[in-house]
Amino acid sequence: MSGASRILANDIDPIAGMAITLNCELNQLKPFPILTKNILDLEQDKWDLIVLGDMFYDEDLADSLHRWLKDCFWTHKTRVLIGDPGRPQFRGHSIQHQLHKVVEYSLPEPTRQENNGLTTSTVWDFQP
Predict the structure, then answer these.
(1) Contacts of 68 by beta carbon, 8 Å cutoff, 6+ apart
(2) Least buried of 7, 44, 98, 110, by fewest C-beta within 10 Å?
């Protein structure tokens, strides 16, 4: 919708891939490629922008992701935006020192109830 010339969606869960395709259809967008392999295990590609959400739910994954994002930033000058609802694994991770808040959103009540009392979600700009 913003005019990107190339898009790749990534989630290791094939059902998430189907949800991405349905979301494209609902927004009248041509579906784009979806990778259902762990992108962290593949050769790094050049991206202008990486947008990821709620990925810091596991300490080992968070550490691997942090290294990968730093490599993207320093190798390709990739801009990275991270969305997170404030999970403890994210709030306590060393990446916190490299983030700048872009915007914070209040979560709807049903989402709050489903997510153990998390009330907001924040978008962060990663700047190592």
Answers:
(1) 39, 40, 44
(2) 110
Q: How far apart are CA 45 and CA 93, in angstroms?
A: 25
Query: How far apart (Å, rounded) are the C-alpha atoms in residues 81 and 123?
Result: 7
Secondary structure class of 65 (helix, strand, coil): helix
Residue 67: Cβ within 10 Å count: 11
**Predicted confidence (pLDDT) per residue in 63-106, tens digit:** 999 999 999 999 999 999 999 988 888 999 999 999 999 999 99
Q: With 0.70 as the threshold, say if the pTM is over it.
A: yes
* Tens-place pLDDT, residues 110-123: 888 887 778 999 99
d(C-alpha 75, C-alpha 72), whole Å:
5
